[in-house]
Specification:
The chain has 368 residues and is an alpha+beta fold. 30% of the residues lie in helices and 27% in strands.
Length: 368
């Protein structure tokens, strides 16, 4: 039985560990803090490739779309394996526009996305009011994606962790920095407390911290932490039915009666504090979508780190000179969405199979 060490216990690391253990691998997760403590648990949980990627049907779009189509079965399996429930809502989404010139771009988007089998509806202002009566009168149209969905990220991550624990994955948390002492003849890792861990295979799923391994592996890994600040509002009698997008951000209605509003992004190193300026950016525009928010104050604010690569593509694949080292990191703001497909393709490649989605564009040595 091959023993795999997964460096990083975010949503990507947990998902890979779960899929590998289902295939008979012996898996240990090594996490410097606690599982899901950075980008994963702080995410809004959107599963929305059509809304997020509106202009270019590139390899990244194809990867995201493959994951969306896996997600219904994947989330069901996670619930069954963990015994825990979490919100998975196939709410659909509306990408809203304010100017007549933007209506043509919606038709262009509809045309190419339908080539990928998308269900796409372009709604005028009257049709919009029927499905979302609280939208601003300034919104003149929207493109609707009934297939898009969202999860409640904190509960999803908890369920992934519990599924891993129940199915034999060892999870070592609060290790501080974990160094790779050896990787050519087997893998040897050492935590700050001097505990050592051995494995046959290493998977690097440590988000923006993966950059610390550049010198060791003689790689260029342009991956950086981007702070995403988010706030949440309580809904009262107002019903919001869809994920709502504009060019400035998004609002996601949750089953607990809240609206998640994101995201204000900035470069702040590894700091995860919330700033007045960052939240104010959200407050300044969200009434342009839902005017009733002008009478509300956010009841909760938070921030998480999103691992962004230079070209926006994640790193997924083994090192040519060290195939027992596999990278799966840099998913930026799509870690929740991409968790299903990343787990699948990593498990396929480690099992000696061809990945079900082409991965050439995502190889970790592409900048080297």
């Amino acid at each position: 039985m091959k023993h795999v060490a997964v460096l990083g216990g975010g949503v990507i690391g947990l998902s890979i560990a779960l899929e590998l253990t289902r295939r008979g691998f012996d898996v240990t997760i090594l996490e410097k803090n606690t599982c899901g403590g950075q980008a994963s648990g702080a995410a809004a949980g959107m599963l929305a490739p059509y809304s997020e990627i509106g202009e270019d049907p590139d390899d990244f779009f194809r990867l995201c779309l493959a994951s969306l189509r896996l997600f219904e079965e994947w989330q069901h399996d996670v619930k069954q394996l963990s015994g825990l429930d979490f919100e998975y809502e196939k709410s659909g989404s509306l990408h809203c526009v304010y100017h007549p010139a933007d209506l043509l771009s919606l038709q262009t988007r509809k045309a190419w996305q339908e080539e990928f089998g998308a269900i796409v509806n372009v709604l005028d202002q009257q049709a919009l009011k029927e499905v979302e009566p609280h939208l601003s009168d300034d919104i003149i149209g929207a493109i609707q994606y009934p297939e898009e969905a969202h999860v409640y990220s904190p509960d999803y991550v908890k369920a992934l962790e519990e599924a891993c624990r129940q199915h034999g994955v060892r999870i070592e948390e609060n290790l501080g920095a974990v160094s790779v002492e050896q990787y050519e003849q087997g893998v040897l890792l050492q935590a700050e407390n001097k505990n050592e861990y051995t494995a046959d295979q290493l998977i690097v799923s440590s988000g923006a911290w993966a950059k610390e391994l550049e010198d060791l592996f003689e790689l260029s890994l342009p991956i950086f932490p981007i702070r995403g600040q988010i706030c949440a509002y309580e809904r009262q009698e107002e019903q919001v039915n869809h994920i709502l997008y504009t060019s400035q951000g998004y609002l996601v209605p949750k089953a607990n009666g809240t609206l998640v509003n994101g995201a204000s992004e900035d470069i702040a190193g590894f700091q995860t504090d919330v700033t007045e300026k960052g939240i104010q950016r959200l407050i300044n525009w969200n009434t342009n979508i839902l005017p009733f928010l002008a009478e509300r104050e956010p009841f909760h604010t938070w921030a998480g780190l999103r691992p962004a690569t230079q070209d926006g593509y994640p790193f997924i694949g083994p090192l040519t000179k060290a195939p027992n080292v596999y990278f799966a990191c840099g998913h930026y703001r799509n870690g929740i969405l991409l968790s299903a497909i990343t787990a699948k393709v990593v498990a396929e490649e480690l099992s000696g199979e061809q990945a079900s989605v082409p991965l050439t564009s995502f190889r970790p040595e592409r900048f080297t």
